[in-house]
Amino acid sequence: MQIPSFQTLELQVEDGIATLFLNRPDRMNAFTREMKDELIAAFDFTDASDEVRAVIVTGKGRAFCAGADLSSGGDTFDYKKRGGEGANPDDAHRDGGGQVSLRIHRSLKPVIAAVNGAAVGVGITMQLPMDVRMASEDAKFGFVFSRRGIVNEAASSWFLSRVVGISSALEWCFSGRVFSAAEAKERGLVRSVHKADELYPAAVALAREFADQTAPVSVAVIRQMIWRMAGAETPMQAHQMDSRAMKSRGASEDVKEGVTSFLEKRPAKFPDQVSKDLPDFFDWQSEPPFK
Question: With a threshold of 0.70, does the pTM exceed it?
Answer without folding.
Answer: yes
